[in-house]
Amino acid sequence: MRTADLTGLPTGIPEALHDEGIEELYPPQAEAVEAGLTDGESLVAAVPTASGKTLIAELAMLSSVARGGKALYIVPLRALASEKKAEFERWEEYGIDVGVSTGNYESTGEWLSSRDIIVATSEKVDSLVRNNAAWMDQLTCVVSDEVHLVDDRNRGPTLEVTLAKLRRLNPNLQTVALSATVGNADVVADWLDAKLVQSDWRPIDLKMGVHYGNAISFDDGSQREVPVGRGERQTPALVADALDGDDDDDQGSSLVFVNSRRNAESAARRMADVTEQYITGDERGELAELAAEIRDISDTETSEDLAKVVAKGAAFHHAGLASEHRTLVEDAFRDRLIKCICATPTLAAGVNTPSRRVVVRDWQRYDGDYGGMKPLDVLEIHQMMGRAGRPGLDPYGEAVLLAKDADSRDELFERYIWADAEDVHSKLAAEPALRTHLLATIASGFAHTREGLLEFLDQTLYAAQTDDPERLGQVTDRVLDYLEINGFVEFEGDSIQATPVGHTVSRLYLDPMSAAEIIDGLEWSAKHRTEKLRALAGETDEESASEREAEPEPDPTAGFQKASEMVSDDGDGDGSDDGDDELEFETDITYPTPLGLYHLVCRTPDMYQLYLKSGDRETYTELCYEREPEFLGRVPSEYEDVAFEDWLSALKTARLLEDWVGEVDEDRITERYGVGPGDIRGKVETAEWLLGAAERLASELDLEAVYAVREAKKRVEYGVREELLDLAGVRGVGRKRARRLFEAGIETRADLREADKAVVLKALRGRRKTAEKILEKAGRQDYSMENVDESDAPDDAVPDDAGFETAKERANQQASLGDFE
DNA sequence: CCATGGTTATTCTAGACAGCATGTC
DNA sequence: CTAGAATAACCATGG
């Protein structure tokens, strides 16, 4: 089918496609159109990666918009949201407006009403439904990318429920689901009342094979000799072989998949020795620049290691990298500057990074639940192998598995190359999934009775494929009990209603279990505070009792200040339990301390906890006893509770946050907790979100802890000690600049407006533009830095205990002290 | 005494969505 | 019930 023959699209689009060089539709695309894609027909397309799925989505969305509708494109990853947005924006000149909505990217519901195509993550869509976004019922077309992810234990149910809700809200909704090739795409199609287009067709051939001995055997029967000398390894030989190329002089890039971060990094180090020999003089310079950019992103060992290998034309890629690192690496790989990436599975499901050759080095991965190394799913291996073949560059892509002996070669062929991908199975009947989704279903008015809930659940994939219809009812009853006991829903005869807190929890997008934990912790702290105060004041002291009543501060700032005064978190963390007096102990628990709050949110199921390494058990058990008064809630017993281990992991995570707000250097934190810069960002982001939710809950339940929570949240947000909160709130001022300004005697936003410009300039290391911007944002009228000379600033007469270096050192020292105890 | 090289014991293990209200280095 | 790579620790050898 020719693109010129397409009908039902906005004017100019067929021509535009033609101009892009798309004259003829790929067979699966043509099949989709014939199935009624551009006439609003629902469709499941189960086709390989890079076989033109995006155009299928675009045809559906554009034709829907042409009919006056509005389309939604659901992505599984935030990174993909921006990628897709950029792609769809090329239709803007034809009057198509594109908007994105993810947790961290522009999100106002109103603004999206005017867009024709909206790109969002499944969680964000779910959240928008929960919050009754106005434009939800204007949708005429929804595209779900990577729909096979309904199989995912954690996030699959969200996608499943969200699709069911969208379809219920808009009965005539066109549903287009894009899937990798899976075993039972027909079941998915049945569920969505959609036609099925299934195909193995690829625009670029994919040769799959196994390397063993001195050659790769491919699935088409061909062989390619790739000798491996004695004592050498297979992977570098394969990478070098791809770079040597065939007859053409084009250098082929490689993507190497391994099963751990550490393996990715060490493999990259080895591959760098190979790629180094293939880079040209020009490239060497560009790579050096790229390495410098990488070092600039973060001052950590990970960043440094990455820069080193990048300078030689290789890279590693995993979730410990900062997102800026990842983007740089991905872009440079696409630009053919980086010749080889060694990656964990991040890259298999992430943004588009095609490669001439894909080497799947590890096909097993450690899995604690499984109790050892677990073979990866066929689907997962196929996703990795599907990255082989760069459109327009390669005649075909090569995907290679590695075998050490003839037996495992045969096994790999059997297990992965000849094998079909697994079926997808709904994971909706798991209790954690239903906990959150049933509450949301009740709270947003989709159902108000047990029967109503089951009727709604009947529209999910789970119902479509289960052979145990009882199961869902049983789990539903258990979950409803749980929600009732925790006060999130109320029964009135047959009718179930969400309580006000229940509504809030649903809208905050919290797992009800997280919310329950947070509420328990905060109420526990309130109760203990009252008890301690009573004990201190003596039970009959009426004056202090009435004072206590009057405690909640009407003025937030006053309470805020108060919280700051009460919290004593610097310096005495490790050493001061020599217990000066009881009073200090009392003040410690009077308001929840930051550590207490961090631990509270870290032990919530919404926080992904750090892993305990050898030695950590002792370190954190000790810390657990040292800081016991700060924890909100009963501390599990070291000897009796199985939950103790989890408690310690949460403590480790909470400690990381405490270091972060104690202004401990990034590289120090990564070193101390064995994480990458990306992990710090991730933990901080999650903590920010959960503390924000905790703040809302506290204010709704009228708990004084709001002020302490708000401060703890602000500190996590800026990564600063309490004295810098005011400064760090100024746009353009982060943890580093705030500390420098503070050191120079500029301690508040107000100081910034009054201060000697020379001092400001000096504190900001002579960056005039930065200084001007900061002064302007701080509300200073005369912010110009013209004719200001930083050398006019008086020489450092800074009191040393407030000095940046001193504070930093103290923080770092504190950190290392804890290490050795 | 130390550098080097080889062998054995120990360690360690993927990923990443969400509120709200505005802005990091 | 199940692994395997990287690294640390250890030991032997030779200068």
TrEMBL record:
Residues 536-584, 779-821 are annotated as: Disordered. Keywords: ATP-binding, DNA damage, DNA repair, DNA-binding, Helicase, Hydrolase, Isomerase, Nucleotide-binding. Its EC number is 5.6.2.4. GO terms for biological process: DNA repair. Residues 812-821 have a biased composition (Polar residues). The keyword Iron does not apply. Residues 238-440 form the Helicase C-terminal domain. It is an enzyme of class 5 (isomerase). GO terms for molecular function: 3'-5' DNA helicase activity; ATP binding; DNA binding; hydrolase activity, acting on acid anhydrides, in phosphorus-containing anhydrides. DNA-dependent ATPase and 3'-5' DNA helicase that may be involved in repair of stalled replication forks. Belongs to the helicase family. Hel308 subfamily. Monomer. This is ATP-dependent DNA helicase Hel308. It comes from Haloferax marinum. The gene is hel308.
